[in-house]
């Protein structure tokens, strides 16, 4: 492992203090950061009525902001996504009359964590914190693997150095190991401690602590793989590394060229580089890098054909996007739209109702959810729609407004979205098939009821009475017919909402720009009873699926069942973490996270594909997936009580067509979340790899109750890199868990039938 080479020990009155000179502390001389380290009183704002002063201070590590409230709290800079300046949150907007914009700023976190809204005492003080946090975010992003490791060690050292004397005695080391999820034999711990204590002072200082850490984290599992290909046991020659890439990583003809690239990129020893060789340190750095990860980095980038009809893509989609919590009393917020769009969502939902003063509002009707202005939602959409992806956003409109307020909605859409709103068919031609994401780059498409069709004349009436909205068909409160204004109708082009009658009716009468919405139960029944017809229907028209109205807790259904029949817009409650959102994040992690994933060719052409009988399709070949779960590294603690250590197990779950659904798990390892070793192999048969997702879950085993979730990673089967790979685990919120990973060996082969 690379060691921490830039630590100085300062001696003052026999006290030893660590000073870590890491690359990110190039900011040590930065005036803004020095002011932040001195601290300041800032107002923490939670609502118009809750505004309290707290003392905030940047810690010496340059990565943690500490604040004092009833009890001490911390903010890790690594968790902060962006700093917004001024009244750029609903909470700060609500107090705009009390605090001017130049005093206000917002820390926006990754994942589902709520924003932190702050108010400074003066404009200059606000600017210090805005500039300072932005610099820290940039420094964190630019850290290399060695610097991240240095930071990780320093964080743990600070936690374990209870008396803050800058040294670690044996008792503190024992405490540190428990904090790091290690239940190590005391005799063995003392042996490592004594070996590292070169000064024989009974404490670890400076490089002694680094030496102890290196002994503690020695990767025997990686060393064994290295030894299998190294003739002298010390280095891998270029030829030996090429052989490893061919035999284990299945890289084929490019292995020689790639071997040289890996040496140039990851080998820390200049001498080894000069001789075209790789040491164990370089080998391990490669294996833990993105190139050594399970997800092929080439498939992370935008690489798919984006010129096919919209109906040929799975589209990342959100249900009741405005809600931050449950469906009955949850908060409605513009922030929910921002978070969904930042996750690559390309279909957002707006439920519109008549509001006061002629202003339409957005909320979940007939509930106690809070209300926000339609105007503010569209303004948010205009600002954030294309920050993550340039491909089209579908605005799914649930319209419950009067004719007057529908006209207001149409005017707001027109004036706020401007040229980004698609108002007419491309080239003014009547479409025979849907346009492509490429054709519709930078456009917002309105999905709603429409008077007549795209090809009909302008002589239609100004309003029409039509069926109730999609999600209200089963709602007894909304059984009355509703009217739609011509102004709003004219803004609907390629996503005209229609009632679904039958697949036969759609085949004979429906236009390509007409689409239907299905409740999860109705869609599941159609998928089970008429799967092949559903697939064929979805090759030409868009289908939207939404959660059952019974899911008042904002829980989610399994989206895989609907992807199996080609449904494009499978809408989920983005605010609710869990396996269903893990699958969604996993599917859309590929292709540049652009929110569009091209469906397999057998779901786009005229071939008859039945997910219940995958073996009947042309070119059918099943695959064997073999996963050797070797080890884990720095797994997160679940219970933060002192002395608590996890008993981890790994479960591998396959999601896909019915025949591919499977789960297997390893045994659990007693009291070791730091470097558990399993060496267990799990085998699966996959019939439709093009649709399969593989989810790796790590849990803390509990014999008397339900296991506790520790981390997960979900990957499309077609994006898996075979060979020795690291799986970098994500939290329940989908954010990275620093240095936490699994080490696996993956083999994929065609299944042969023995005669």
Report the radius of gyration as a whole number of Å. 29 Å
Share of helix among residues? 25-40%
Q: How is the biggest beta sheet arranged? A: 9 strands, mixed
* Unreliable residue stretches: 1-26
β content, as a range?
A: 25-35%
Morphology: globular
Oligomer: single chain
Number of strands: 34
Based on secondary structure, the structural category is alpha+beta
- What's the number of helices? 22
Distance between the termini: 50 Å
Overall mean confidence score, pLDDT: 89
Q: Biggest sheet: strands side by side, in what order?
A: 17-16-15-18-19-22-23-24-25
How are the secondary structure elements laid out?
Layout: E1 7-12, E2 15-20, H1 31-38, E3 40-45, E4 51-58, E5 64-68, E6 72-76, E7 80-85, H2 90-94, E8 104-109, E9 116-119, H3 123-142, H4 145-160, E10 168-169, H5 170-179, H6 186-196, E11 203-204, H7 206-216, H8 220-229, E12 235-237, H9 238-247, H10 255-266, H11 270-274, E13 277-279, H12 280-287, H13 297-300, E14 313-315, H14 334-342, E15 347-353, E16 361-362, E17 372-373, H15 374-384, E18 393-399, H16 403-417, E19 444-448, E20 463-466, E21 482-485, H17 486-489, E22 492-497, H18 503-509, E23 514-519, H19 520-529, H20 531-538, E24 543-546, H21 560-563, E25 569-570, H22 579-587, E26 596-598, E27 623-633, E28 648-655, E29 662-665, E30 677-686, E31 693-700, E32 708-716, E33 723-730, E34 736-750
Parallel strand pairs: 15-18, 18-19, 19-22, 22-23, 23-24, 24-25
Antiparallel strand pairs: 1-2, 3-4, 3-9, 4-5, 5-6, 7-8, 8-9, 10-11, 12-13, 14-26, 15-16, 16-17, 20-21, 27-30, 27-34, 28-29, 28-31, 31-32, 33-34
């Amino acid at each position: 492992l690379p060691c921490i080479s830039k630590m100085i020990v300062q001696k003052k009155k026999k006290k030893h203090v660590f000073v870590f000179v890491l690359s990110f502390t190039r900011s040590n001389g930065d005036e803004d950061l020095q002011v932040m380290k001195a601290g300041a009183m800032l107002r923490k704002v939670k609502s118009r009525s809750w505004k309290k002063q707290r003392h905030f201070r940047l810690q010496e590590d340059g990565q943690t902001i500490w604040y004092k409230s009833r009890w001490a709290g911390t903010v890790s800079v690594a968790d902060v996504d962006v700093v917004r300046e001024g009244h750029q949150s609903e909470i700060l907007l609500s107090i705009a009359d009390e605090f001017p914009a130049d005093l206000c700023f917002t820390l926006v976190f990754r994942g589902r964590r709520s924003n932190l809204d702050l108010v400074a005492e003066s404009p200059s003080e606000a600017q210090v914190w805005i500039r300072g946090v932005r610099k820290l975010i940039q420094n964190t992003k630019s850290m290399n693997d060695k610097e991240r490791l240095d930071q990780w060690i320093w964080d743990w050292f600070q936690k374990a150095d209870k008396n803050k004397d800058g040294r670690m005695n044996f008792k503190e080391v024992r405490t540190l190991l428990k904090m790091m999820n290690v239940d190590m034999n005391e005799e063995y711990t003392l042996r490592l401690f004594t070996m590292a204590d070169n000064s024989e002072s009974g404490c670890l200082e400076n490089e002694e602590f680094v030496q102890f850490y290196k002994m503690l984290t020695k990767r025997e599992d990686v060393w064994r793989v290295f030894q299998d290909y190294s003739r002298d046991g010390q280095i891998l020659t270029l030829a030996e590394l090429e052989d490893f890439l061919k035999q284990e990583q299945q890289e084929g003809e490019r292995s020689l060229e790639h071997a040289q690239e890996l040496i140039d990129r990851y080998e820390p020893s200049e001498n080894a580089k000069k001789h075209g060789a790789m040491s164990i340190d370089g080998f391990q750095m490669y294996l833990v890098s993105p190139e050594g990860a399970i997800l092929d980095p080439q498939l992370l980038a935008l690489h798919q054909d984006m010129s096919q009809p919209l109906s040929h893509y799975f589209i990342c989609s959100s249900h009741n996007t405005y809600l931050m919590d449950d469906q009955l009393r949850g908060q409605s917020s513009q922030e929910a739209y921002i978070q969904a769009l930042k996750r690559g969502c390309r279909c957002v939902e707006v439920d519109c109702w008549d509001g006061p003063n002629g202003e339409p509002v957005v909320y979940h009707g007939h509930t106690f959810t809070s209300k926000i202005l339609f105007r503010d939602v569209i303004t948010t959409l205009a600002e954030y729609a294309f920050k993550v992806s340039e491909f089209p956003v579908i605005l799914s409109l649930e319209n419950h407004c009067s004719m007057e307020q529908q006209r207001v909605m149409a005017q707001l859409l027109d004036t706020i979205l401007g040229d980004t709103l698609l108002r007419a068919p491309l080239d003014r031609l009547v479409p025979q098939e849907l346009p492509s994401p490429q054709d519709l780059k930078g456009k917002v498409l309105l999905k709603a009821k429409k008077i007549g069709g795209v090809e009909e004349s302008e002589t239609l009436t100004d309003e029409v009475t039509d069926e109730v909205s999609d999600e209200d068909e089963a709602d007894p409160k909304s059984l009355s017919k509703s009217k739609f204004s011509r102004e709003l109708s004219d803004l609907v082009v390629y996503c005209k909402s229609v009632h679904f009658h039958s697949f036969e009716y759609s085949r004979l009468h429906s236009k390509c720009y007409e689409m239907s919405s299905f409740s999860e139960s109705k869609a599941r029944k159609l998928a089970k009873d008429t799967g092949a017809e559903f697939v064929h229907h979805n090759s030409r028209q868009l289908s939207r699926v939404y959660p059952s109205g019974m899911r008042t807790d904002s829980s989610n259904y399994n989206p895989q069942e609907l992807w199996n029949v080609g449904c494009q817009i499978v809408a989920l409650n983005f605010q609710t973490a869990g396996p269903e959102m893990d699958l969604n994040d996993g599917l859309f992690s590929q292709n540049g996270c652009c929110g569009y994933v091209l469906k397999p060719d057998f779901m786009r052409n005229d071939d008859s594909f039945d997910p219940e009988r995958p073996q009947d399709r042309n070119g059918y070949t099943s695959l064997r997936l073999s996963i050797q779960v070797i080890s884990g590294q720095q797994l997160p603690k679940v219970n933060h009580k002192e002395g608590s250590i996890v008993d981890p197990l790994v479960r591998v779950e396959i999601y896909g067509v019915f025949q591919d659904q499977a789960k297997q798990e390893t045994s659990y390892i007693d009291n070791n979340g730091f470097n558990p070793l399993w060496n267990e192999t799990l085998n699966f048969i996959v019939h439709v790899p093009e649709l399969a997702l593989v989810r790796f879950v790590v849990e803390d085993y509990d014999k008397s109750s339900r296991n506790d979730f520790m981390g997960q990673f979900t990957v499309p089967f077609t994006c898996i890199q075979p060979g020795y790979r690291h799986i970098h685990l994500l939290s329940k919120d989908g954010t990275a868990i620093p240095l936490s990973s699994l080490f696996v060996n993956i083999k994929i082969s065609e299944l042969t039938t023995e005669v």
